[in-house]
Amino acid sequence: MAMEFVAAHNLDDALAAKAQQPDAELLAGGTDLMVEVNLAHHRPSQVISLRRVEALREVTPTRIGAGATWARLERGPYRGLAQAARTVGSPQIRAAGTIGGNVGTASPAGDGLPWIAAAEASIEVRSEARGTRVIPWRDFFVGVKRTSLEPDEIITAVLVPGDLPEHQEFAKVGVRNAMVISTVSCLVMRGEDGIRVALGSVAPTPIRATRAEEMINAESAVSDAALDEFARIVSQEVKPITDHRSTERYRRHAAGVLARRLVDRSVR
Amino acid sequence: MNITIKINGEDRAVDVAGAESLLTVLRNDLDLPGTKDACEQGECGSCSVIFDGDVICSCLVMAVDADGSDVTTVEGLGTEDDLHPFQEAMLAEGGVQCGFCTPGIVVAGTHLLDENPQPSEIEIREALSGNICRCTGYGAILRAFETVERGDV
Amino acid sequence: MTARTTSGVRGGIGTSVRRPDGTPKVMGNFAYASDLWSEDMLWGATLRSPYAHARLTRLDIAPALAMNGVRAVLTQDDVQGKPTFGQEEQDQPVFCDGTAQYWGEPVAVVAADDEETARRAAASIIVDWEPLTPLTDPEQAVEDGLSFREMRIRRGDEDAAGTVVAEGIYETGTQDQAPLGPEAGFAIPDGEGGLDLYVTSQWIHVDHRQIVACLDMAPDSVRCHPAGIGGAFGSREDISLHIHVAMLSLATGRPVKMVYDRTESFAGHVKRHPSRMWYRHEADGDGMLVKVTARLLLDGGAYAHTSRAVLANAAFFTVGPYRCDNVVVDAAVAKTNNPPAGAMRGFGAVQTCFGSESQMDLLAEKLGMDPLELRRKNALLAGDPMSTSGQIIEGSLPTLEVIDAVEAIPLPDPLDDDDPRLLPGGTGLTTPRGSVVRGVGYAVGLKNLAFSEGFDDFAEARVVMTTAGVEVHTAAMEVGQGLVTVCQQIARTVLATDQVAIVWDDTSQIGSAGSTSASRQTQMTGGAVHAAAVGLRDQILADHDGEELRDDGVYREGEQVATIDDVCSSGPVECHVQFRHPETFPPDENGQGDVHAGFVVAAHRAVVDVDPELGLLRVVRVDTAQDVGTALNPQAITGQLEGGIMQGVGLAVMEELMIDEGIILNPTFTDYLIPTFLDAPAVETRIVEAGDHWGPFGAKGIGESPTISSTPAIVAAIRAATGRPLSRVPVRPEDIAGI
Fold first, then answer.
1. Which residue, A3, A68, C21, C276, is most buried by CB atoms nearer than 10 A?
2. Quick check: A199 and A209 in contact, CB under 8 A?
3. How far apart, in whole angstroms, are the C-alpha atoms of residue C607 and residue C625?
4. What single string gives the DSSP state of each residue in C655-673?
């Protein structure tokens, strides 16, 4: 059976195609889908390419088009996201892979996801049938590689609140310095409303260390003793697993260390 | 599905059946086996090509989605009588051993030098961090860049 | 032996001449086995066992045969000749023969019109398995009598004792050669019942012997040809798809191409033996070694491959490049249901070098002595007996010189840059400069050259003078290491002409060159080329009563007495040599004897920046001083040293196949991590030319040395930075952080 392929040139075409073929695979950078095609010999029967939809690539201070590549996001304007973008894969991957793909795949180790959580961003999705839905990140990422996206919907943007803290710091632990899936990643933001801490690879979805945030934000000053306690709470709050990449114990330890270092960096 | 891709300056028409990658089509249908298939996962860079101005992994491009695009492979970068200076430098500095990574390195390296004719060592390392070499330990490849930057080719 | 001719030929030995196959490689038109093509070819695909150990209860190939475009489906029932193959022992069935013994063991192969159809057809074969409990503990296997070899070495006084003792247990994980070029084969029937085979290989003659036995064909009806290879490092020393692709071609009467994808490649070739080593080093109060006791356990996986030889290497290099007159070693290589292990660069010496160099540092600590001083004091030198086998070291062994040379290399400047790419964690931004501690470590490694234990090791070459230049004929496998260049250089130097072409002969045209392994080809095939070139030159000079051969003819007393056309007036003139190294002997029951053909030594120094709290690191520099005998091509040597060091870096800090109940969990480049440009240390190299007793112009093989003592030097540096004992490689962040 031959594959059906639609090269969408605008969003309406893409939405119409997805409405007609809810099972169709969406293709942007190909950095996740093509690995499946090549390795697992996955044979999609219907594919809709979003690569030519210009509107998806738009990046403003409050809206990141789903089609924005990591190479584009490395150039800003979001500091923490730019730091994360630089660690994604390799230059070849960054030239093709998109934030929309990262969000749609929803891997617990997705490099852009801690920033989205720290930013309190929402995911904008659209369907031909129901129009636009804006889903807060907590309600979008529901499990390991599971989101609340409906089959006929396409992710169109990451919506960024206007009052984003200016101090943003990211770090990612990996066993090698390029092309590595993170063992633990962390994104800290510090602004007038206090400190926010988000983590990746330590739970089924990206998480905020809310108890640790409460503790540190209750402190009048960020002392060494306070940071020690903060790091300890982060270590306890995360829910990592042991797998072939790392151990639960190490991930807990590294989560605390990263969170502490990033808060420290954000106050300098 | 009939598509047309401009490859090394020439429009090439090809019929693709399914989701096969641009890499597969280059090697099997377009008689351009220079681009290599060491991992087919985007983890080694041996399949690197220039695609609409960017260095990407051709194993991660669905061939049918490359319709209308502009691709340069290693075969388009130099001829035997007129090698690109970086190709010449790789030969002069011993940057080629088994050579399986070499097409990808040549594509990524020439692209870097087009954008930045005098990259520092650390810039080269980061720009080529998606190209794995198992034979050379990378030293001779870095020396090839130095040779080009000095104008010694 | 003269190193230069009077004409000072261009491109001779001692110069960094370019490799002759470089231009096609940089242009992308070098023909690797995986690029071979013919219009009427079929594609092959393999069905493999998903279990490490299981009984095959049903195998129904009918669905595959029924598929449109499928031309053949073959299983063990279709093997016409010997049902098993193997390099040392023919213990592996061509296809799974009732019981799968390892994850990925081939069960059937399919030939079809295109690659997609072949894969789908292989997947459609109905296979029922009864899973069995895999034997995955090598200790248990040896206890149960399941081993490929057990060895003992006893030299000197077993009851000798030292006053200072260092003991440790060390482990090395499973490293994979991971050459970038995948396994690939192309088989073409010749229309007369025979076959031409182009396969990624390290030794086409030993492949040929196994293939004709399994196909039950006359040896000259199957011709194995050298094919372009994308790296080997030991993974191509054993049969992978060779017999399968040959069988498909014979069954269909068509050319058949077979290429493994990366996951299949991980499953389809042998790996480095993982090891566990129990060590006890005893010294006197002055630091002189009194006794070394060791127990070595290697895991050979499901089939023998080259495990017997790997074990011997590990055992004989238990002590390393040090003099010790009392040595007790018990060693075994287990047979388990883990993935088969075999040759990988270093071949057993890597494992024991990690153990013994770690021990030397521990002993130095107990003695309160500088680690290099301890090594110098005990250094094994030319004329000394090998500590394990008692063999007197003939030829050169510049142990002290390589230690001095590597120590003399200036250390890198202290870290003074905040560029994250120069810090542990890199662009992951994990580590402020203030959290970094730098450590420096040394290690020295010893390796044998060529094959050992009485193996009849030889290489053939035929050198031909024609009116169009010199041809060098060999069946040696060029896998990227640069043998092709060195052979040209040797022939040019002897025959005083730069017009030398290397001709890759197949198994029907010339005898074996032996394996491209054991750091042997420069000495063996290079030795054969040298001897054949000398024989040819001497013959020509004798025939024309000349004194000197130049590129334009024969000269006597400065006058030309014959042109090259004259020399070749009755046709090309040739000399064919079968070259052997000094004889070796099997060890006696205590491991004693002249077991090895020659030795090579190297020293490494590593500088590593560590973030102790997170356990992340950056290998800043790995420097080396290498014993080379004579440097035939300095640039090519540097390339081997830098490349080998990078594989040592991989084993030290990131490369490991994670195997659970016999199944490889990370058979992809996503999770089997090889150093990238951003992980690679800078490397400073020094070569030590001390000549040697049998290589061409005194050259020694150097391919494996860089992979042997680089790993323990890096681990020593991490220990120096952190104080952690670190007894296992690859070292993981949790090991360094102590979590």
1. A68
2. yes
3. 15
4. ----EETTEES--STTTS-
- Amino acid letter at C247? M
**Prior bond to C410 cis, omega within 30?**
no
Buried b (16+ CB within 10 A) or exposed e, C28-67: bbbebbbbbeeeebbbbbbbbbebbbbebeebebeebeeb
The nearest alpha carbon in chain C to B125 belongs to C677
For an interface test with C, the pick among A105, A175, A186 (most C C-beta atoms closer than 10 Å) comes out as A175
What lies within 8 Å, CB to CB, of C284 at 6+ separation is C162, C163, C164, C290
Q: Per residue in A51-94, pLDDT tens?
A: 999 999 999 999 999 999 999 999 989 999 999 999 999 999 99
Q: What percent of chain A shows pLDDT beyond 90?
A: 93
Q: What would the two tokens of residue B124 be?
A: 């080269």
For C54, list phi and psi in degrees, rounded to 5: -165, 150
Dihedral sign, Cα of residue C369, residue C373, residue C374, residue C377:
negative
Burial class (CB in 10 A: 0-12, 13-18, 19+), C682: middle
Cα angle: B76, vertex B81, B82; to 5 degrees: 50
d(C-alpha C517, C-alpha C507), whole Å: 18
β-strands C685-688, B54-57 pairing: unpaired
Is the CB of residue A246 less than 8 Å away from at least one CB of chain C? yes
C678, closest residue in chain A (CA to CA): A177
Nearest by Cα to A56 from A26, A19, A87, A24: A26
- Cα(B56)–Cα(C305) distance, integer angstroms: 39
> Do residue B96 and residue C22 have CB atoms under 8 angstroms apart?
yes
Listed in sequence order, the DSSP H helices in A74-169 are: 79-86, 91-96, 99-105, 113-118, 137-140
The answer to whether C496 and C550 are in contact (CB under 8 A) is yes
**Whether the predicted pLDDT of C4 surpasses 80:** no
Let me know: does C260 contact C332? Beta carbons within 8 Å: no
Cα C331 to Cα C277: distance, rounded to the nearest angstrom: 9
Q: Is C180 within 8 Å of B101 when comparing Cβ atoms?
A: yes
Please state, in angstroms and rounded to a whole number, the distance separating the CA atoms of residues A123 and B122: 36
* Contact by Cβ (8 Å): C74, B77: no
Residue count (chain A): 268
Long-range contacts of B1-6 (CB under 8 A, 24+ apart): B1/A2, B1/A3, B1/A5, B1/B64, B3/B63, B3/B64, B3/B66, B3/B67, B3/B68, B4/B67, B4/B68, B5/B66, B5/B67, B5/B68, B5/B69, B5/B70, B5/B71, B6/B69, B6/B70, B6/B71
- Chain A CB contacts of B131 under 8 Å are 90
HSE-up of B46 (CA within 13 Å, CB side)? 28
State the alpha helices, DSSP H only, in C591-676.
634-653
Sequence-separated (6 or more) residues with CB below 8 Å from residue C355: C168, C170, C275, C277, C279, C294, C296, C318
Pairing of strands A194-200, A207-208: antiparallel
Beta strands in chain B, from DSSP E residues, in sequence order = 2-7, 10-15, 48-51, 54-57, 70-72
ipTM of the complex: 0.98
Reading the block at residue A99, the tokens are 């934030």
Residue B152 has pLDDT above 90, yes or no: no
User: How far out from the chain centre does Cα C129 lie?
Assistant: 35
Residue in A34, A42, A92 closest to B48 by CB: A92
Q: What residues pair up with C56 in beta bridges, in sequence order?
A: C129
Over residues B86-129, the pLDDT tens digits come to: 999 999 999 999 999 999 999 999 999 999 999 999 999 999 99
State whether residue C680 sits within 8 Å of chain B by CB.
yes
**pLDDT bracket for residue C8 (50, 70, 90):** low
Asked whether the beta carbons of A94 and A27 are under 8 A apart, the reply is no
Q: How confident is the model at residue A1 (pLDDT cuts 50, 70, 90)?
A: low
